[in-house]
Specification:
Shape: elongated
Strand content: over 45%
Number of strands: 39
Number of domains: 3
Oligomer: single chain
Radius of gyration: 37 Å
Largest sheet: 7 strands, antiparallel
Length: 527
């Protein structure tokens, strides 16, 4: 709303040109019509984080999400390579009929999962990369099956590859991959009592539609399978011990993003961290650092609290089949147990965090009944409920505005802007306006006389009636020339101060009405 006001205001200083048959130049004194606008608490603080209390007072309600825990640090499946070489045991050449199956090789293969013992896994994404080298002088068919699996259609995973004929001196090679997306694995092996183990089978046949082929013990088939980039969707079993360290991470903190400088003193606040553990395993979390950083002032305030640097236990999540109920842990910060008021009063625009997490710190206490859904692991939020009851000292709000003055505009020689304010807020306000150079830096200031006076208040510092004030901004000819020719951007600053009484409460119906009139000397050219 402030931006709209200033844009309308200065736009009245820039007159448009008209067309005539002959050139004409006039210098005129112009008094613009009145421009009106209303400023409310929504314009000072984002309305999306405001909540209204039963007495119509206002509370900031803000949630700041800490960096989510990456599931890869809880559980990761390394690439697994399976190689095999097959030869013929015949000392003399043997003829194989079309369709003859000369390799049938079931085997068990194990994922290297450190101390984890997984009996079931659903795969989000991944693939089997294969490389088959054949010295058989006829086309062969290679069939690879993984038992106790199900694809998206409920079928056992099996794939067949055609490999062209080759020779010992010139073998052929088939290279490719199969997607494993959506495939589930029973990892209990052939016996059903193992962990991390899957059973597979390789079958190789001579082409049924081909010719008979003669082979000897000098002919071979080489097979290499590699499970790569396996990203699970879900695992069940004992998911092992692991640890995770994130940070320091700089996180945007937008609750005070419209305030450029100044100080506040907060009367009361409710702040807590909520940690939600969606993993079906015990965990611990340690917040090593939470640093409030104001990049405008360069000031930083580190949170001091008993939880900083100490492990907090997180109960395991509970899977009921249709949803997960996370184990929740809440950490409260008050002015009695921390310096949280100083952290918030720093008016930071960044929060620097470092978080450390441990999974199953006591080992396999669930007897292999852990679970992990990879789309929900551990989440942590920083909740702030801040009643707008405060002392404000030189709180500065800033807005850059482009007046869009160019060489085709009718130049304005000088102007006097009058702002008539009806203030229903219990604080004073100063208005400042600055010219900016081509690089966006402060070039010069404009003379502002007067200030917006605080509304009248009662003994509880609640507004009883608004107060009228007038603020005047002089734009002399030399500074107007800079706007006309150099840079039409200006910086508007409004500075607020509560009155002398402590901790002013802000109510939803507080307002400031502004009426603006511009008296200008302009040059109008007709061509």
């Amino acid at each position: 709303m402030i931006r709209n006001l200033l844009t309308c205001t200065i736009a009245l200083l820039v007159l448009f040109s008209c067309k005539r048959k002959e050139d004409t130049r006039w210098d005129v004194e112009l008094l613009t019509p009145v421009v009106k606008t209303r400023l409310t608490i929504d314009d000072l603080v984002g309305d999306s984080i405001l909540s209204i209390n039963p007495d119509n007072s206002v509370t900031l309600d803000y949630t700041f999400g800490l960096s989510p825990i990456d599931e890869e640090f809880f559980f990761e499946i390394p690439d697994t390579t399976i190689t095999a070489s097959y030869g013929f045991p015949f000392l003399t050449p043997v003829t194989l009929a079309p369709g003859f199956q000369f390799i049938s090789d079931p085997s068990e293969n194990e994922f290297n999962l450190n101390d984890a013992k997984i009996d079931y896994m659903e795969i989000q994404s991944g693939e089997i990369a294969y490389k088959i080298t054949s010295e058989i002088p006829e086309r062969t068919f290679y069939t690879y099956t993984i038992f106790k699996t199900k694809d998206k259609r409920g079928n056992v995973f099996t794939k067949t590859i055609s490999v062209p004929a080759g020779t010992r001196s010139n073998p052929t090679t088939a290279i490719g991959s199969f997607k494993l997306d959506g495939v589930s694995f029973d990892l209990t092996g052939n016996s059903g009592t193992k962990f991390n183990t899957f059973e597979s089978e390789v079958l190789v046949n001579v082409d049924p539609a081909g010719s008979s082929v003669t082979v000897s013990n000098l002919d071979s088939v080489y097979i290499e399978n590699k499970l790569i980039s396996i990203k699970p969707k879900y695992v069940r079993g004992y998911i092992g011990k692991s640890s995770f360290l994130d940070g320091p991470t700089r996180n945007n903190f937008t609750i005070f993003d419209q305030i450029k400088s100044g100080t506040v003193d907060i009367d009361s606040l409710e702040i807590f961290t909520e940690v939600r553990n969606f993993v079906g395993a015990e965990a611990q979390l340690k917040l090593n650092q939470l640093l409030s950083v104001n990049t405008q002032t360069g000031n930083s305030v580190a949170l001091s609290h008993s939880s900083i640097g100490n492990w907090v236990n997180l109960n395991r999540g509970i899977d009921v089949g249709t949803s997960i109920f996370p184990g929740k842990t809440r950490i409260d910060y008050t002015t009695r147990n921390s310096n949280i008021d100083l952290v918030i009063e720093n008016l930071s625009d960044e929060m620097v965090t470092q978080v450390e997490t441990r999974l199953n710190p006591l080992g396999n206490i669930s007897s292999g009944n852990d679970f992990l859904y990879f789309d929900q692991v551990v989440e942590a939020d920083f909740h702030i409920k801040l009643p707008l009851r405060l002392v404000a000292n030189n709180l500065k709000f800033q807005q850059k505005i482009d007046l869009q003055i160019n060489e085709e505009s009718n130049p304005v020689h000088d102007a006097l802007v009058s702002i008539y304010a009806e203030n229903g807020f219990p604080f004073d306000a100063e208005v400042q306006l600055y010219l900016l150079d081509e690089w966006g830096g402060f070039y010069d200031s404009l003379v502002v006389t007067g200030r917006i006076q605080s509304a009248n208040t009662d003994a509880q510092n609640k507004v009883t009636s608004p107060v009228n004030s007038v603020v005047k901004i002089a734009i002399p000819e030399n500074k107007m020339e800079f706007l006309n020719t150099k840079n039409s951007e200006v910086m508007l600053q409004i500075i607020f101060n509560t009155n002398s009484l402590p901790h002013t409460t802000i109510y939803r119906d507080y307002y400031m009405d502004l009426k603006l009139v511009t008296d200008m000397n302009a040059e109008i050219n007709y061509r």
